[in-house]
């Protein structure tokens, strides 16, 4: 309750939140963070995702692999000054998830 008024949230909105954020691979706040960051940036280096999430190399690799396997992003290796780098890019499926995520959050906040 807020200001003496009862707050009502559409049941279908609650179900969509549950469905979108509890199914694999989006059952992890770290993976949601990765998709949101990539939606905002288009592509990022794996090392930048490590810094953003606070994950170690093997942990971020696991998260990225699960998202790539599900089609939310893709990776490619590039060589910069003879040093290999992994670039992570969002896919159309990843962008679709991001748009749903933003839409649900907007509805929840009443905007």
From TrEMBL:
<dbReference type="InterPro" id="IPR027395">
    <property type="entry name" value="WH_DNA-bd_dom"/>
</dbReference>
<dbReference type="InterPro" id="IPR036388">
    <property type="entry name" value="WH-like_DNA-bd_sf"/>
</dbReference>
<protein>
    <recommendedName>
        <fullName>HTH arsR-type domain-containing protein</fullName>
    </recommendedName>
</protein>
<feature type="domain" description="HTH arsR-type">
    <location>
        <begin position="20"/>
        <end position="103"/>
    </location>
</feature>
<dbReference type="InterPro" id="IPR011991">
    <property type="entry name" value="ArsR-like_HTH"/>
</dbReference>
<dbReference type="InterPro" id="IPR001845">
    <property type="entry name" value="HTH_ArsR_DNA-bd_dom"/>
</dbReference>
<dbReference type="Pfam" id="PF13601">
    <property type="entry name" value="HTH_34"/>
</dbReference>
<dbReference type="GO" id="GO:0003700">
    <property type="term" value="F:DNA-binding transcription factor activity"/>
</dbReference>
<dbReference type="InterPro" id="IPR036390">
    <property type="entry name" value="WH_DNA-bd_sf"/>
</dbReference>
